[in-house]
């Protein structure tokens, strides 16, 4: 079963191919094998500093038996709603009403439905 290669991996393969073709035409190495970091940086298209940093992260991950951590995708967050003192008091009153008057077990979905109906609450779960 073949492995799915994402766009970043495909770009990397194309960069390696673009680096290797001139070496084949020249019948020799463009960058000597002694300069490993410089060669890896040229092949992958990133700076030598980035290659050094990734190598260092790999060494620390190997010594601590952990995976290499990559930065996660930043997702947009919903704006927080501002609740004034009157709304806080109304919410508190509805909660007390559920327990004292109706004698029901309160759930978040029940409370949200009542608040949207009575005080036109704009929040969500």
From TrEMBL:
Entry protein name: Uncharacterized protein LOC114246645
Gene name in the database record: LOC114246645
């Amino acid at each position: 079963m073949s492995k799915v290669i994402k766009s970043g991996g495909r770009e990397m393969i194309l960069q390696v191919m673009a680096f290797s073709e001139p070496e084949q035409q020249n019948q020799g190495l463009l960058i000597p094998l002694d300069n490993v970091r410089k060669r890896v940086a040229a092949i992958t298209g990133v700076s030598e500093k980035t290659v050094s940093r990734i190598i260092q992260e790999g060494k620390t991950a190997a010594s601590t038996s952990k995976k290499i951590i990559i930065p996660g995708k930043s997702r947009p967050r919903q704006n927080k709603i501002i609740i004034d003192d009157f709304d806080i008091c109304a919410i508190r009153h509805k909660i007390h009403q559920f327990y004292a008057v109706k004698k029901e077990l309160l759930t978040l979905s029940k409370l949200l439905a009542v608040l949207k109906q009575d005080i036109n609450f704009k929040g969500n779960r």
